[in-house]
Structures are given as C-alpha cells and as structure tokens.
Specification:
Elements (H helix, E strand, L loop, with lengths): L8 E5 L6 E5 L5 E6 L11 E6 H4 L7 E4 L2 E9 L2 E9 L7 H16 L6 E7 L9 H6 L10
C-alpha cells in the first residue's frame, strides 16, 4: 500500500513487537524498524518507521529507538544538508500523568538535540482530540450507545 502511494518513509505506531526489530518485506520494497517494551511487560504501544528498502540500504545508520514511544532517523539529503525524522506514539489521556510527562520530556529533549541546520520532521500519532463533545463522531462510527474511551 505504501508503494502504491509512492511513500518513502512512514511513521508506525502500535507496532507491539518485543524489543527492537528490523524486518525487510520480501518483494514489498520496505524495511520496518520498530521498538517496543523490553521484557515481559504487556505490549501496549510501540513505535517505528517503514522505509523504502532502496533508501534504507543507502542510510549511514538505521533508525535509533529511544523508547517504546520515540524513534529517530538521521537522513542525509545532500552533501551538507540533513533531516532528522522523529517517529512518535504519544500516550492517551487515560495514561498516568507520569507517563505523559515522560513522553513529552523525552520528545522535547530529542528536539532540542537536533542540529539547528537540520530539517526537523516529526511524524506519528499524538492521540489528539479537539473539543469535548464526542457524541458526534460516535454517531458517525455507528457507536451511538458506546461510551467514549480516552
């Protein structure tokens, strides 16, 4: 599907692999780099990048997983121009405040460490919601009797 839309790099969320994983899609043309919770903890998040394999083979280094919600990739655009891509998967409002604070502190730290000459691209799922009236979109989804979840 990514190839059909000529996507070179896509952010992934809820990957749910154990540890750090790199998979190459056979005949699909993409390399998937993912990170998730290590150990026996429940796999409830996970972040990654799908990179066109032709491009992934030209990278100086593969994406670096920071934790199960943040991953970064340093991409050479031209001889003296680079892009830093950050893939994110933010915690929902239902998560403890400590989890949300840790995520945004980590993201802030990553952004502050990016070279000021680099192009900065932040991709991912911020689990954002606008407004407080959830009934309109519940009806659109055919869930008029459902209770909204954060």
């Amino acid at each position: 599907m990514l190839g059909q839309y000529q996507v070179d790099i896509a952010a992934l969320s809820e990957t749910r692999f154990a540890g750090e994983t790199q998979l190459e899609e056979v005949d699909g043309g993409y390399t998937f780099c993912c990170i998730e919770q290590r150990g026996d903890a429940p796999r409830s998040s996970g972040v990654g990048l799908a990179i066109r394999t032709k491009l992934a083979r030209q990278l100086d280094s593969l994406p670096r997983g920071i934790n199960n919600r943040l991953m970064t990739l340093h991409l050479k655009l031209t001889k003296h121009c680079f892009a830093t891509i950050i893939s994110t998967y933010a915690p929902t409002m239902a998560n403890p405040d400590e989890t949300k604070e840790a995520f945004y502190k980590g993201l802030n730290r990553m952004v502050s460490e990016v070279n000021s000459r680099d192009k900065l691209i932040i991709l991912g799922d911020f689990n954002a919601r606008v407004g407080v009236d959830h009934s309109s979109w519940l009806n659109d989804l055919g869930l008029e009797s459902a209770t909204p979840m954060d």
